[in-house]
Amino acid sequence: MLTRRHFIATTAALFSAPLAAPARAASQAQKAAWDALVVPAGYDPATTNPWGLHPRFLPQRVEANDGLAPGSIHVDAVARYLYHIQGDGTAMRYGVAIAKGNLYTPGTYTIRRKAEWPRWTPTKAMIERDPELYAQHADGMEPGPNNPLGARALYLYRGQRDTYLRIHGSPAPRSIGGRASSGCVRMVMAHIIDLYPNVEIGSTAVLYPPERLTARS
Length: 217
Fold this sequence. Notes:
about 220 residues, nine-stranded mixed beta sheet, globular
């Protein structure tokens, strides 16, 4: 847990190229219908778990370390947690999946864009690395429950430069707790739907290294 004695941090979710505007944006009614598909009936963030996650990856309110700015996001790549810091000394904690191998890029980023049910386009590097998987989507993939960016996406920038790193929902919730993406931070769709309206444009997101750091005394 994120406590005054222990905060180890780190991570990232699926690289994507700059989003081209879709030919026809999904309507609010369509987005609401998709939300209903990915949020279980009677959903309770603390207990609902049709995905078979380890209970520690369900959303929890925990004590935050001193000195963390309210509204900021901190991704612990060791424990596979994302913390959203609140103004009362607590944090909302969510389970995540991070990138495979050396595709994870620690650092401090700014969230400069948010999107509901975004379109997704693989990067050129992704296509070159795995053409069999990604080439078919070179022109982009329309929004929907099977889209790799899922229900919501937060776009990570360095200055004004899009890094193509995202914190996003995933159609593969069983990957949570593992290393599965091509660079981004993955969340359960129902969890990022909860988080999304509470994250402001301009917020800081810190992705910590995947190596275990020394715990605070």
